Amino acid sequence: MTTVLFDMDGVILEGPRTAPQVYAAAADAALADLGIDPTPDQRRDFRNHDYDRMETHCRELGIDPDRFWELKETYASRGTHDRLRSGERGTYDDIDAIRDLGERTTIGLVTNNRHETAAFVADYVGFDFDVVRGRDPTFEGYERRKPDPYYIDDALDTLGVTDGIYVGDSRTDVTAGRAAGLETAFLRRPHNRDRERPRNATHELTSLADVSSLVGPE
Q1: How far is CA 120 from CA 116, 123, 130, in A?
Q2: Which pairs count as long-range contacts for 84-93, CB under 8 Å and 24+ apart, including other chains?
Q3: What local confidence, expressed as pLDDT, does residue 1 receive?
Q4: pLDDT confidence of residue 218
Q5: How many CB atoms lie within 10 A of CB 183?
Q6: Is residue 23 exposed (0-12), middle (13-18) or buried (19+ Cβ within 10 Å)?
Q7: Domain coordinates of the chain in residue numbers?
Q8: CATH architecture of 4-15+91-213
Q9: What is the 3-state secondary structure (H, E, C) of the chain?
Q10: Which pLDDT score is estimated for 68?
Q11: Highest taxon of the source (predicted)?
Q12: Rounded CA separation 27/54 (Å)
C-alpha cells in the first residue's frame, strides 16, 4: 500500500500561498490585542516575516516577540478560514480524487501553512486524512518549513512508514519530499504552468486524478 502525502496551498486550495493582506490584517489584530500602536515603519515590519526586525521592534515596544508571533499566526488562520467560508478563496475542481484515493490507501496532508489551518481545511473538504501536519505557531516552526523535510518526516513517523509519494506544486515541495526519501509528483496548476519541471521530480501530473495511476491497482 503506497502512502500518498499532499501539499495544501496550490494543490487543494487555489493559489500558491496565503494572501499578503491576510498577514497584514493578522499583524494589526495582534498589535491591537497587545495594546500597541507602532510607527508606520514598525507596522510594516510586523506585517512581514522578518523575525529579527520584528523581534527588535517588540523589544523596543516592550512586548514578548513569541506572544506576538503566536497571536499573528492565530489571526492569520482565522482570516484564511473566513476567506474559505465566504468563497473568496476556493478549492480546485479535481480534489475529490484525494477522497477516492483515501478509500484505497493511506493519505496525508503536509503543508508549510499553519497547522490550525491545515486541520481546518481537512475538515472543510471532508477528507479522511490519516495524518495532518502544518507548521507550529512559533518562529522555530516557521523556520522548519519546506524545503526542510521536518514536517514530512514528522508525518511519516506518525504513520510509521518510510516511503511513499509527496504531491506538490513547487520546487521546494519536490526538494523536501526527496529529502524525506519519498517519490515526488510535481502537479501543474495555473500558477506554475510555465515553470520548468524540477529535475529531481519523480513524476509530473496535470491533475490530481492522475495520482491514482501512481498508486497502482487496488
Answers
A1: 6, 5, 15
A2: 84/13, 84/120, 84/121, 84/124, 89/13, 89/14, 89/15, 89/19, 90/13, 90/14, 91/12, 91/13, 91/14, 91/125, 92/11, 92/12, 92/13, 92/14, 92/189, 92/208
A3: 74
A4: 60
A5: 17
A6: buried
A7: 4-15+91-213, 20-86
A8: 3-Layer(aba) Sandwich (3.40)
A9: CCCEEECCECCCECCCCCCHHHHHHHHHHHHHHCCCCCCHHHHHHHHCCCHHHHHHHHHHHCCCHHHHHHHHHHHHHHHHHHHHHHCCCCECCCCHHHHHHHCCCCEEEEEEEEHHHHHHHHHHHCCCCCEEEEECCCHHHHHCCCCCCHHHHHHHHHHCCCCCEEEECCHHHHHHHHHCCCEEEEECCHHHCCCCCCCCCCEEECCHHHHHHHHCCC
A10: 97
A11: Archaea
A12: 11
In the prediction, which pLDDT does 152 show? 98
Instruction: Please name the amino acid found at residue 36.
Output: I
Contact 142, 135 (CB under 8 A): yes
Task: Report the amino acid identity of residue 120.
Answer: F
Q: Find where cell 508606520 sits.
A: 40
Q: What is the pLDDT along the chain (218 residues), one digit of tens a residue?
A: 799 999 999 999 999 999 999 999 999 999 999 999 999 999 999 999 899 999 999 999 999 999 999 999 999 999 999 999 999 999 999 999 999 999 999 999 999 999 999 999 999 999 999 999 999 999 999 999 999 999 999 999 999 999 999 999 999 999 999 999 999 999 999 999 999 999 999 999 999 999 999 997 66
